[in-house]
Design a protein that fits this description.
- The protein has 2 domains: 3-286, Beta-galactosidase, Chain A, domain 5, CATH 2.70.98.10; 303-553, Alpha-Beta Barrel (TIM Barrel), CATH 3.20.20.70.
- It contains 15 helices and 35 strands.
- The strands form 6 sheets. Strands 6, 7, 8, 9, 12, 13, 15, 16, 19 and 20 form a 10-stranded antiparallel sheet that branches.
- It is globular.
Length: 650
Amino acid sequence: MSGIKTSISTFRYFKAYGFQCLRNYCHEALLSVLFFCTASFVCNKASAGVVSPNGRIVVEVQGDTSLAVKYIDGKSVCRAFTIPSLGVAVDGNSESGRWRVAGMKSSRPLHECYTMQTGKRSECVNEGIEYIYACSYGTDGHGRLALRLYDDGIAFRYEIDGLAGSVVYDEFTTYRIPEGVERYIQRFDPSYENFFPKTTSGRESAANSAYPALLRFAPECWALITEAGIGRCHAASSLTNRAVPTDYKVTLARNDRAVTGDWVSPWRVIIMGHLDDVVESTLVTDVSRPAENGTDNGWIKPGVVSWIYWAHNHGSRDFMLVKQYIDLACALRLPYALIDAEWDEMSNGGNIDDAIDYAASKGVKLMIWYNSSTAWVNNGAPGPFYRLNKPEDREREFAWLEKKGIAGVKIDFFDGDTQPTMEYCMDLLESAARHNLMVNFHGATIPRGWQRTYPNLMSVEGVYGAEWYNNRPVLTDRAGVHNTTLPFTRNVVGSMDYTPCAFSDSQHPHITTHAHELALTVVFESALQHLADRPESLLAQPEDVRNFFSSLPTAWDDTKLISGYPGKSVVMARRKGDNWWVGVLNGLDVSQEISFNFGFLGVGDYELVSFEDSGSTGAPWRISRRKVSSSSSLSLSALPRGGAVYVINR
């Protein structure tokens, strides 16, 4: 890079992203030295290793068919796992899948700063090293393996030129996870609504497992496996280990779309490092395609939403009930209320137009629910149906919503991870953006980086969340462990519409404490944070709690895992502007001491507002105020399945 080009680029980065990103950008020279040294070390030999910028992650090409991943922490070297099989199968020819690595073709440093309107961090830095390997497959097939190494993980994908007219129907990527490795992996279901049980054997895992998969290879070596960069010609994938318990193979859902030109696969992503490295990572969006229209979308406004379904499954058919939730949003100064399923059947004093007019009179914006009409459309499925499937119908419906001043849509019940479904989701996002509509997907696949490509994608369900208190009694006893596992698994990869915070009960009771429930709104990241509880329950809370909801951010400038362990506890700190919100969860059925310090704060004094469990049935809250600084510390005697929230104001 020439000096003039470097200066111009540096100025642009500084202007756009400020000092922090400029400081990282200035590391590019060092990064260039590192990757040139690494390239020299490799010397085009497929058996040599390449390393991440911080030197902790090493990937070795073994023989010509597999990769070995190692993690170095101080003097300790952890041989984490191998990838014994690489490649994809094209046009029904399984032999085309066995890729062989011939040698390195090129390498280059990666450095990019970008902004996010949703998620755990508003300003992200994508910094690493990319290596391109020449590969061969079948009798005369040629492709490339693109391998990226970052300080917090690795990503790789397959690239084939001139594949027009072909269909990629299978993949042979396999992660070999040794027996004895601690793992938290959910059984695959198209809705991604399952638990993440702790196991130590592939024999104890489901034969078909879903992303993300969290693994602990050593005390300070964790890895989370997922994917990113799903495009129009891709199906999403899951992991199967039916044949060999240690071998988790990438298995594609149905793919009907022929390639139109050159082809690249989705990114296979492994976030790796200490537990805080995994939780704080933005690697899923780092490798994803930027938004084509930039991020200057003033109509995209994350916020808290009042939500009727948890308490009233068919409540959106009742105009008088809908009014209660609009009134709730108004009273708590929430920007949004959601009108859920069956609103096309609304009666009892008004219809959907009346509800829209009433919300406008209260200064509340509405979100409106739709059935995707690709999966559940009979046997009691809720409507409205078939309003979004055809392009002309979709444009007409979204134009109507835009005219009515609707803020966004919640779209539900998708037909799994197939390529047609992935393409339909992208069609919906693009059409919604043309009409200034935010989108929340339910009954859908987990985030795979689309929140960067489509900034109007605010949240995705893909989680066993609070609505299950409606359906089965299982969550009652398992919520503590589940809630303290999700921050390390599902919520790492993107916004998660768990619909948190209920002080009263739905059809089945909850036994988490009030402070635990409040802390879910901070620990769980979702750009649209739907409150599950009834209006009368939320409005009966102390004024400080009501004001908490009024000022709660749902998109963050920074996120830090302070402490925690899956299934046991979590202390999560999130910053918006100069202020911090800290959520604490105890996942155990017994009390535990949870201590942490405030070293993440800046210089000076802050006001700390504490929301803790009092331990008294008659007075569930203990709310207090005091001054703290970066040298302060705190110790909480957390009740069984308890928690706390600390709001730290500058």
